[in-house]
């Protein structure tokens, strides 16, 4: 069964809108766990527009499922934060600072030496590493040479094409998954997955270990409530 890690960035966005502590991020993460989420994902960005660096310490102290910290390891503060918290998993995402949201994976060929050294930095501390990549077999093959444990497939293009042609949308991901299996990498996926496209994606990706989902899930929770929403996402991952 594919595991669901709930990305709680958007809960922090709501909290930050008024400068207080409503909604409380740690309580929300604990509720996600109670409702069945198997992990919590955060993506602290340098401007702290949603997740603040202190949130990561507070979450790590409170949650009992896997913490996945996503972010750009070229920022020293991010590396320090991850090493200080020792999450179950770090996901390396090559975002520029101030970027609206993540919009591409690592070029693992060009940055192979750098990524290899970063994998060692985190793995030495017992932290599983996942590298965010586009669904390109060449990127996955080069990722394997870095020593990473997993790759996370950037699913924006699948989600964008899903409504017009689901078979064409999933095909590059299916091929990417085959390559990941061939080179011995674990497989995660995320970005713009939702209640419309998730079940189809999961059914066509037999090796998928984990999805991280935030934006759509939190939006759905406005209508359905968090408990019912998580139940529906988990159903799609059976
Ligand atoms: C890495 C990734 O795929 C992103 O979806 C990211 O975690 C979302 O970040 P924002 O919530 O800042 O858009
Ligand atoms: N890694 C992807 C993630 O954490 C959430 O992406 P999204 O569901 O907010 O698009």
UniProtKB/TrEMBL annotation:
<dbReference type="GO" id="GO:0005829">
    <property type="term" value="C:cytosol"/>
</dbReference>
<dbReference type="Pfam" id="PF03740">
    <property type="entry name" value="PdxJ"/>
</dbReference>
<feature type="binding site">
    <location>
        <position position="50"/>
    </location>
    <ligand>
        <name>1-deoxy-D-xylulose 5-phosphate</name>
    </ligand>
</feature>
<feature type="binding site">
    <location>
        <position position="18"/>
    </location>
    <ligand>
        <name>3-amino-2-oxopropyl phosphate</name>
    </ligand>
</feature>
<feature type="site" description="Transition state stabilizer">
    <location>
        <position position="152"/>
    </location>
</feature>
<dbReference type="InterPro" id="IPR004569">
    <property type="entry name" value="PyrdxlP_synth_PdxJ"/>
</dbReference>
<dbReference type="GO" id="GO:0033856">
    <property type="term" value="F:pyridoxine 5'-phosphate synthase activity"/>
</dbReference>
<feature type="binding site">
    <location>
        <position position="192"/>
    </location>
    <ligand>
        <name>3-amino-2-oxopropyl phosphate</name>
    </ligand>
</feature>
<dbReference type="GO" id="GO:0008615">
    <property type="term" value="P:pyridoxine biosynthetic process"/>
</dbReference>
<keyword id="KW-0808">Transferase</keyword>
<protein>
    <recommendedName>
        <fullName>Pyridoxine 5'-phosphate synthase</fullName>
        <ecNumber>2.6.99.2</ecNumber>
    </recommendedName>
</protein>
<comment type="pathway">
    <text>Cofactor biosynthesis; pyridoxine 5'-phosphate biosynthesis; pyridoxine 5'-phosphate from D-erythrose 4-phosphate: step 5/5.</text>
</comment>
<comment type="similarity">
    <text>Belongs to the PNP synthase family.</text>
</comment>
<dbReference type="InterPro" id="IPR013785">
    <property type="entry name" value="Aldolase_TIM"/>
</dbReference>
<feature type="active site" description="Proton acceptor">
    <location>
        <position position="70"/>
    </location>
</feature>
<feature type="active site" description="Proton acceptor">
    <location>
        <position position="43"/>
    </location>
</feature>
<feature type="active site" description="Proton donor">
    <location>
        <position position="191"/>
    </location>
</feature>
<dbReference type="InterPro" id="IPR036130">
    <property type="entry name" value="Pyridoxine-5'_phos_synth"/>
</dbReference>
<feature type="binding site">
    <location>
        <begin position="214"/>
        <end position="215"/>
    </location>
    <ligand>
        <name>3-amino-2-oxopropyl phosphate</name>
    </ligand>
</feature>
<keyword id="KW-0664">Pyridoxine biosynthesis</keyword>
<comment type="function">
    <text>Catalyzes the complicated ring closure reaction between the two acyclic compounds 1-deoxy-D-xylulose-5-phosphate (DXP) and 3-amino-2-oxopropyl phosphate (1-amino-acetone-3-phosphate or AAP) to form pyridoxine 5'-phosphate (PNP) and inorganic phosphate.</text>
</comment>
<feature type="binding site">
    <location>
        <position position="7"/>
    </location>
    <ligand>
        <name>3-amino-2-oxopropyl phosphate</name>
    </ligand>
</feature>
<feature type="binding site">
    <location>
        <position position="45"/>
    </location>
    <ligand>
        <name>1-deoxy-D-xylulose 5-phosphate</name>
    </ligand>
</feature>
<feature type="binding site">
    <location>
        <position position="101"/>
    </location>
    <ligand>
        <name>1-deoxy-D-xylulose 5-phosphate</name>
    </ligand>
</feature>
<keyword id="KW-0963">Cytoplasm</keyword>
<comment type="subunit">
    <text>Homooctamer; tetramer of dimers.</text>
</comment>
């Amino acid at each position: 069964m594919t595991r669901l890690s709930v990305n709680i960035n958007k809960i922090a966005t709501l909290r930050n809108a008024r400068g207080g502590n409503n909604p409380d991020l740690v309580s929300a993460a604990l509720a996600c766990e109670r409702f069945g989420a198997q992990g919590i994902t955060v993506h602290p960005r340098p401007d702290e527009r949603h997740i603040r660096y202190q949130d990561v310490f507070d979450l790590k102290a409170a949650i009992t499922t896997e913490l996945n910290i996503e972010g750009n390891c070229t920022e020293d503060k991010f590396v320090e934060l991850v090493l200080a918290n020792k999450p179950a998993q770090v996901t390396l995402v090559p975002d520029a600072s101030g970027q609206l949201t993540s919009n591409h994976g690592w070029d693992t060929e060009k940055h192979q030496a750098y990524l290899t050294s970063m994998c060692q930095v985190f793995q030495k501390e017992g932290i599983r590493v996942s590298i965010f990549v586009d669904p390109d077999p060449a990127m996955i093959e080069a990722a394997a040479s870095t020593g990473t444990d997993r790759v996370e497939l950037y699913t924006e293009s699948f989600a964008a094409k899903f409504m017009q042609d689901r078979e064409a949308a999933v095909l590059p991901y299916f091929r990417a998954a085959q390559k990941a299996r061939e080179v011995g990498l674990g497989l995660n996926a995320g970005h713009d997955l939702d209640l419309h496209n998730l079940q189809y994606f999961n059914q066509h990706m037999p090796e998928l270990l984990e999805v991280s989902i935030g934006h759509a899930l939190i939006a759905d929770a406005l209508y359905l409530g968090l408990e019912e929403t998580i139940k529906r996402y988990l159903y799609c991952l059976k």
